[in-house]
Amino acid sequence: MNHAAGKEVSADGLSVVLTSVSSDSHTWNLVVLQLVLEELGHQVHNLGACVPDELMVSECLRLRPDLVVVSSVNGHGFHDGLRLIRQVRSHAELAGTPMVIGGKLGIAGPGCDRSRAQLTAAGYGAVFEDGTGLTAFQSYVGRLAIGQAS
Amino acid sequence: MSVPDTGSFGDFVARAHRSGKLVVQPRMGVSDPAAMRAGLLATRKAAATAVGTITLDSYTRMGDNANARAALAAGIELNGYPIVAHDPAVTRSVLDGVAGPDFPVQIRHGSPCPEPIVAALIQAGLHATEGGPVSYCLPYSRMPLEDSIPNWARSCDLLAELRSTGAEPHVESFGGCMMGQLCPPGLLVALSVLECLFFRQHGIRSVSLSYAQQTNSDQDTEALLALRRLATHWLPDVDWHIVVYTYMGVYPRTPAGAAGLLEEAARLAVRAGAARLIVKTVAEGYRIPTFAENIAALETAALAAEGCLTIAGDAVDTGIHAEASALIEAVLDLGPDLGAALATAFRRGYLDVPYCLHPDNAGRARSYLDSTGRLQWLSIGSLPIRGVVGPTDSAKLTAAGLLASLSYVERTFDNASLEQEFHAVSDHSSGSTDDRDPDPGNRSPAARQSA
């Protein structure tokens, strides 16, 4: 699936919604990811800590981003992330919006293949678990910007 | 309703401090009541002067008790103890025969709207908690300060009512931790004092002022001595003590690096006359620690504290006291109601927490680590400290630079421990064993510094 198909990426780069999940209060991950994305030339809408599902969905409907980045480190990211993408995908306008998730997603350290598979089956284009490093994420965003990410 | 005697938190810490013991405390919370009780019992049995902790889960912190109840019903493990979702009788049974005058238990949560949590802990017979209208709102939620402040005021009022039963409720300010890292010490000290003044304004008579270990031990010592001076000045009529948090930023991943940082925190606490230390574990860099890891951390910290003395006199004064004083006085000048004054201070940028994304934070102040590992202001926005701090740097912040600052402590302590292992291996291969330390964890940068 070519997520960026049919949408011209402007000179300002991708429009990215950057968000945590509703129960997660951490923000350093968001502060750093914003700088990373901005340095790659993209526009970031940083929703901050503890974003309620409804706010996240309404911001996506308003902004129609090229990419949604979900970052969570409190150990609830797997459960909250699954719930979140189901809500996003229930809106036809957001059915094809690329979404990725990363961070510390479970309370027992990097998860098993099954949790990753569940997240991708639910619609996440990529899962960047703790320890993956930034390069894989940067490379995904780079491919998306030139319309190649899948 | 009868209130079981679960012990006075402030009194326990004061007695330990007088007898020269550093009180150590874990962060610990699991959703299963039997397991929570086992964790408290293990803490109580640790070879240390310890107090117990029940850390709440993220759903409860957010007031999302429906999700917490659903998780309990579905048998999903949470990242803490859902004190509101559990029946008060369940929590009482967790505490029964465990909490008492010789083992007080504190509820740690992180909520900007703790009223239901405070009601639940009171129902369970407890009266010690922590947080604050600013420190649990700005970094950890998107709730407006205008809502968090009155909610915290009502929560303090609820706790203060317990004084009529003979209990002495205790509230610890989390203000010394803002964002965990990269907040310059002057602002941390000021926020800790301001929140304790807020608790006092709402009837609390036993408080603790926090300070989270940062990146340079000399700077931390100066900050703690400034905090002590300011607490003596501003809180003359309440019971107070200082609590140090072991480093709250990105944590070392090597076991020796993690232990070295914890030992450094314990020595910092004793040196600067703090009475209590919240520990971190060797698992901190990866996941929520197990009980055994927590107990090991308590004992490591207690041991490190034992061999250390409180320093008399002053540290080198680089201006932390003056900076914190200027911030405190600027807020107090905004009016007699501290809650309203705090809200105004943030609106005007008189208080401005670097890198805090909360909509009520001005977000104009920025900080950085200098080449000696000291936290400095990069820009001060509207903070009323222009005359106190020197000229600020205006270098551009990059992701790489920020990541390097965020991982400075992790790298420093992990590198020291890896270097130690390398030397141990090379010493061994060359046949020379004279120099080897039987415990590589003792040779953290800090240990070398104080040796």
Helix content of chain A: 25-40%
CATH fold-type name of the largest domain in chain B: TIM Barrel
Q: Judging from the principal axes of the Cα atoms, what is the shape of chain A?
A: globular
Q: Total number of helical segments of chain A?
A: 5
Q: N- to C-terminal separation of chain B? A: 55 Å
Order of helices and strands of chain A: EHEHEHEHEH
* Uncertain stretches of chain A: 1-6
Biggest sheet statistics of chain B: 6 strands, parallel
Give me the CATH architecture of the largest domain in chain B, please.
Answer: Alpha-Beta Barrel
Protein name (chain A): Methylaspartate mutase
GO molecular function, one term (chain A): metal ion binding
InterPro entries (chain A): Cobalamin-bd, Cobalamin-bd_sf
Organism (chain A): Kribbella soli
Explain this structure.
Chain B: Keywords: Cobalamin, Cobalt, Isomerase. Chain B: Residues 421-451 are annotated as: Disordered. Chain B: This is Methylaspartate mutase. The complex is a heterodimer of chains A (150) and B (451). Chain A has five helices and five strands, in the order βαβαβαβαβα. Chain A is an alpha/beta fold and 150 residues long. Chain A has a domain at 13-18 and 39-65 and 84-104 and 123-129. A five-stranded parallel β-sheet of chain A has the order 2-1-3-4-5, sandwiched between helices. In chain A, strand 4 (99-103), helix 4 (113-121) and strand 5 form a beta-alpha-beta unit. In chain A, helix 2 (53-63) packs across helix 3. The radius of gyration of chain A is 14 Å and the shape is globular. Residues 1-6 of chain A have low confidence and may be disordered. Chain B folds into two domains: 9-306, TIM Barrel; 408-450, no CATH class. Helix content of chain B is 44%, strand content 10%. In chain B, the strands form three sheets. Chain B has a six-stranded parallel β-sheet. Residues 430-451 of chain B have low confidence and may be disordered. Chains A and B meet through helix 1 of A and helix 3 and helix 14 of B.
